[in-house]
C-alpha cells in the first residue's frame, strides 16, 4: 500500500505512465502539458521506470509527430505512451487507427478538453475523446484524481493483456488540475498488475531484422474486409480483461472498481448515467434525494468502449423506469450524444432477446452538461431526476445554462444544495497570479492532506489575463472523502489577498453566514472598515462575518519577499481557519519552505521564514459595526456611450457573471465586436509613468515600446494646445517635417500594467537631476485622478493627418493611432509592441490570421479583445483557426481577398458603361502604393457603391458585395515560434513557396510561451527550457535562411529594443512586397527569466552580442541586385555577457557548470559562424526570375 | 641565498609575496598559474553575502515567475537544486586547496552576523588555511555614529572568531576615525592579523549615458603610502604576534621591501598581477631578491619592521608632521597649463 499524497490528476496519471514506459513522445497542450513536464523532470532527475531504466522523453513538433513517434516505438516493441488533449488528440487520430488496427498495446492519457468550434476553449469536456471513438481504442474514463492514477495502471496492464490500445481520459482541469489526497501505488503494486509475460509477448512482436515481417501493407478489395474483421475477438475480450485487472487492483489495494458502477437506491425508479468527474456531484445528489425519501440512483460508466453492455444491464436496478444519460459533449445533428446512443442501443438490443432485463424498455432521455468546464452541481442535477419523473420529459435537454432560444435547458434548482458534510471546512482564496496565492493554497492542501488524517481537495480557477490575472482557490478539508466536484459556494473561510478585488468581484458571495474573512489591505487597521466598498460592508454585516485584516504587502516587503504575499497569508489562514493548531501548521509551512529551497539557497528560506514569523503579529481583527451601510453593487456602471453588446454581454463577463448569461445573449457563430479592452479599465498598475514635458526630447520611444498601448503620443495643431485646459500638459513639437505643432505623451492610467519598459528606454534625462527622466514611474495613487482626466482629454484630440509625418521613423509611426490596445498580455511583453506597430501602420486595411498561442489568447480570449477600430470604424479583422494551420488559413484569406478582388474587376468591366468608364478606369488603374492612393481608392469605391444603388442589374448587388476588395488589403499571418518553427512549419513553408502576397509575422520568444516555456526549434543552444532542462543541445533553426532560399520571399529579422527604425522599415517593406514576406521578431518573454522592465534592454543586448542579428532580405528583380542587408553592427560583447543576465542561460551555469561551459562555447560558435555567414551574404547577388515587364523591388 | 621566508597568520610562507584577492585566484586553472608564478599564499576573492542573497532571490524568483494563467503555472522545468554562489565558491575553494602546495586563504564579506559565522564555518570545512574577513562598509548612515559602527564590526569579528579555529585576518578600510585604537580592538576581538587596506570601488559618472557607473580601477603604486603609514604605526603597537599584510599599491619588488620595512609580514598584490599577468609575481620576487642581495641582507626577517614608527626614529614622519613636511616639499611645476 502506498502512502497518502496530495497530487493533481496529471501527476497521478503521469507517475504510472512514467513507471511503465520506455519511450514517451509528446507535445505540449493544455491541460495535458503537466503530464509530459512531470515525466521530463523525473527523467532529468534520473528516476527510473519499473524496469530500472530512465524513459526517453522526447518532445515532438506536433501531436501528429508525437503519435508517429509513439507508433514507431511501439512497432519496435518498446513500451511507449503519450499525453494530450483536444486538438492534439485529433492530430493523433490517423495514427491511432493504425496502432489499433495492428493490435498494438499502447496508452494515451488524455486530460479531456473542449474541441475548438465557434471558439477555442482550454477547459474540460469530452468532445475530444468522443472523436476518437472510431479508432478502435478502448476508452477508460477516470472521474477523480485517485482514479486517474489507478486507471492509468489499469489501462497499461489491460492493453498489454488485450493487445487493444487504451485511451485513458479524465476531465481537463476538474481532475487534471485538482489536487486531492490519494493513496499512491507502489512499484510493487504496479509490478503485480503488469505481467512479465505480456510485456515479453509485446516485445516479441516488435520489428527486428532477426525475424523480419512486414506490417502496414496495402490491401485490396479481396481481403481488406475480412482482415478488418479478424481483430474482433480481441476487442470482444476487452471488458473481461479490464474487469480482471480491476479485480486484481482491488485485491492489491482494496479499491474496487467496476466497468460500470451503480450507486443509489436498490429500488430506484429513476437513474442517471454519466462518466467522468461529475459523478462526484451526482453521487451527493442521489444520496441527498434518497435521504429525503426518493428512490433514485446513478450509473457511472468507467469503460466506455468497447461498451460494456452486460455490465450496464447488470448494474441497473430492475425497478428503473426512466433513465437520463448525460453527455459532456455536443454532436450537432446527431440523434443524440455518444453515451446516450450507446446506452439506448444497449438497452434496445437487450430488450430484443429471449430474456429481456426489463418488463418494458425504460424511457431513456439524453442531456448535455458541463461543456468547457461549465459547473455541474447538485442544483443542476436534481432537476434531471425531476424531469425523469415527468410524464413526458424532453427527450433531449441541457443543464447548467439558460437556453432561451431552443428552450432545451432544465431550470437550475437553487433551493437544492448538497448537505454539507459534518466537520468539513471550506475555504476560498482570491488572489492575483503574481502574488503566489495559488502556490500557497496548494501548499496548504498538501500540509493538511499529508500531515493529518483529514482529506483535502484544492481546485484553482484562473482568468484569461496574463497580467494582473485573478486566481480563485477552492479548498475543502474534512474527515470523510471529498466527493464535491464543483466550486465552493458555502465557505467557512474567505481570503482576499488584494483589497482591489473587492471592487471588481463578488468576493463574499460564496461566504456562509458566520464565515471568517481575511483581507490583505495596505492600510492602517483603523481605516480598513471605512475603505471597504459599501456592498462589501453590507455583506459582512448581513452575513455576520468575522473580519480580519493584515497589510500583507508591507509584511512581505519587510521580509524581503517583494510582492509575494503568499507566505504572509498562509499562516493567517491556519490561525483563523482552525483546521490545524497554528503552531503545528507554522512548523509544517516552514518545513515545506525548507523542502522546496533546501538546495536552492538559504536567503529565500530565511526571507520566507521572516515573512511567516511576522505574519501573525500583524494580523488584526476588525470590529464590525452593527448598522447597515447603503446598498451598492460591485458591477461597474456602464458609461452612456458604451455599445449595446458591451452593456449586455461584456460588462457581465467582466463582473464574473457570464455563467448567468442566457443562450440568446451570445453570438451564434463566435463573431464578436472588436475594440472592447478599452471598457475594462483594470487599474492593475501600482506605479505608472508620469511625463515631464520639460525633459522630453520628442523621440517617441516610450510609445513604440509600450506593450499595452497605454502610453501614447499625439501631435496636434498649436491651436489645439492653446485651447487645452491648463492641467493638460503639452510641449512644442520638434520636427524638421512639421512646424507649429505641439506634442503630448499621455498614459492611460487604468490600462497601464506598470511594467516600466517605457521608462527603461527613455533616453531623456533632466539636466539638473540625472535620475529624473522625461518619464518616471510614480505611485498610481498619487496620480491616477489627474491622469484619468488627462487621458480623457487626450482622447478628444483628433488624430494627426497620417500624411504629415513619414511613417518610417519612430515619431512618424507613433503619431499613428494604435488599433491594438490594452491587451491582457504580460506586463513587459515583448510580442505586443510589434503587433501594435503593425496595427498603427496598416491596421485600417489588414486581415489577421492568428495562430493559437499567446497572441491568440491576449488577442481574443473573452471577455475582451484589444484589436480595435479607428474613428471611421476601420480596423484589423482578426481570426484564429488552429495552431497548426495558421499559414494555410492565412493563405486562404489571401485567396479569398484575391478572388473577390478579381470578381470585382470582372464585374467592373461588365458594368463600366453603367457606373461610368472614368470611375472604372480610376479604380482599376490606382496602384495604391501610398496611403493617399489607398484613401483615394476608398473614395472611388464609395462613389461606386453610391452609383450601384441606382443600378437595376443583378451584377450591381454582386459588385457592391465585393467592391471593398478593390481597396488594397494586407493579409498578416501572426503566430509564435511554436507555430512557425514547429507545428505549422510545413504549412508555412508551403505558403511561402506560393508566391502569394501574405505577410508572416513570427513573434519569436524562442520557446512555447503560452503553454509554459517548452523548448521549440527556435530555442537557442544552451538555453534551459522545459524538455531542455539540461540546456538545449542543438542550435536554433535558421527559419529566415529557409525562407530566403526561395529567392522571392522578403525576409527580415527584427528587434524593436535594438533598432526601432529597422523594425519599422522591415514591416513597411514586408507590406509593400507583393509576394510572400516573413518577418521574424525577437520577443522577450517572461519565460526567459528576466526582469521584464528591462525587456527592451535585453533585446538590445541580444543584438549587440550577435545572438540576434538584424537583417533584411529584399528580393530584387533588378539584375545583379544585392538583396541581403545586414542591419546590425558586428558583435561588440560576447554572448555570455548577454546570456548571464537571463535565467534561462544562467541557471545551467549552476545546475551543470561543465555542460554550461560547453554549450556556451558552442553558442558563441553558433553566433560567430552565423555572423560570418551573414557577412558573406551581404555580397551575394540574386535576381528574382521575372518577365521583362514585371520588374520591381520593395 | 637570502632567506625569504616569513610567517603570516601562523603560516610559514616561502616568501612575503602573497597574491591577494583577484578573479585570477578564484578559478582553479588561473590560481594554479598564480601559484606557479611564485605566490607564497593565495587569497581568494571575497564571498559576498549580497551576491549570495541576490542570486538566490533573483534566480528563485525567475524560476518561479508565473502569471497565474490556467495554461502556464510556471515557465521553467522543475529544478530541485542549484548550487548557490556560496556552494560554488566553496567547491572552488576546495579544488584550489587540493591542487595547491601553498596556503589558500579564503575571504568573506557578509552583511549579517549570522551569515558571517555560517559562511566562515563552511569556509573552514572546505579546507582554507586561514580566513580573511573583509569589513567593507561605506559609513553612509547619518544615524550611526563611529562608535556604533565600530561596535558592530567588532561583533562580527567576535562571531567569526567563535565560529572558526583557523587563523583569522581582518581586512580594514582606512576610514575608521580612530584607526590605532580600533585596530587593537579588532585584535582583542580575536583577529590574528590585519590586512591594510581595503580599496573601495568608487563610482564614476558616464557622460554619454548620463549614468552613475561602477567599474574597477586598478591601483597605482603611490597608493602604497597609506598602508605603509599605518603598518609602521601599528606594528610596534600590536607587537610581533599580530600579523600585518600590506595591500593596495604593491606593484614592484621595491614596494614589497617598503612594506616589510614598515612592519608588514607580507605584501599582497592584485592590480599589478591583473595588469601584467601572473608571471609578474616572479619578477617582483626577483626584484626583492636583487634588492636584498645588493644590500647584503640575509633574510627578510632583518628587513621586517626596520622602519616602523618607533624603530625608524622618525616617529613624527608617520604622523601629522609628515603632512606638514610633505606639503612644504611640494614645488609648483615649471609651466602651469595654459588656459
Structure commentary:
The complex is a heterodimer of chains A (1194) and B (339). Chain A has 1194 residues and is of the alpha/beta class. A nine-stranded mixed sheet of chain A has the order 1-8-17-18-16-19-20-21-22, with helices on both faces. Chain A has an eight-stranded mixed sheet with strand order 29-28-30-31-33-32-34-35, with helices on both faces. Chain A is globular and about 90 Å long. Chain B is an alpha/beta fold and 339 residues long. Chain B contains 13 helices and twelve strands. Chain B has helices at 23-26, 28-36, 49-64, 85-99, 113-125, 146-163, 179-188, 225-238, 253-262, 271-276, 280-294, 300-303, 320-329, and strands at 6-8, 11-13, 17-19, 42-48, 104-109, 130-134, 168-172, 193-196, 203-206, 211-214, 243-246, 266-269. Chain B is globular. Chain B starts with 5 loop residues before the first strand and ends in a 10-residue tail after the last helix. The interface between A and B is large, with 68 and 38 residues.
Describe the SSE topology.
The complex is a heterodimer of chains A (1194) and B (339).
Chain A: E1 4-8, H1 9-19, E2 23-26, H2 33-44, E3 56-59, H3 63-75, E4 80-84, H4 86-101, E5 107-112, E6 138-141, H5 145-162, E7 166-171, E8 179-183, H6 187-193, H7 196-204, H8 224-229, H9 232-253, E9 260-264, E10 270-274, H10 278-291, E11 296-301, E12 303-305, H11 309-315, E13 322-327, H12 338-351, E14 363-368, H13 378-388, E15 396-398, E16 425-432, H14 437-451, E17 455-462, E18 470-478, E19 491-496, H15 501-504, E20 511-520, H16 525-531, H17 534-542, E21 546-550, H18 552-558, H19 566-577, H20 582-597, H21 602-615, E22 620-622, H22 644-654, E23 687-691, H23 701-705, E24 711-717, H24 718-723, E25 731-732, E26 741-747, H25 757-761, E27 775-779, H26 780-796, H27 810-814, H28 832-842, E28 846-850, H29 854-860, E29 877-879, H30 886-915, H31 917-925, H32 931-949, H33 954-962, E30 970-976, H34 977-983, H35 985-993, E31 999-1004, H36 1039-1044, E32 1050-1054, H37 1060-1072, E33 1077-1082, H38 1095-1104, E34 1111-1113, E35 1124-1126, H39 1135-1139, H40 1143-1151, H41 1153-1177
Chain B: E1 6-8, E2 11-13, E3 17-19, H1 23-26, H2 28-36, E4 42-48, H3 49-64, H4 85-99, E5 104-109, H5 113-125, E6 130-134, H6 146-163, E7 168-172, H7 179-188, E8 193-196, E9 203-206, E10 211-214, H8 225-238, E11 243-246, H9 253-262, E12 266-269, H10 271-276, H11 280-294, H12 300-303, H13 320-329
Parallel strand pairs in B: 3-12, 4-5, 5-6, 6-7, 7-8, 8-11, 11-12
Antiparallel strand pairs in B: 1-2, 9-10
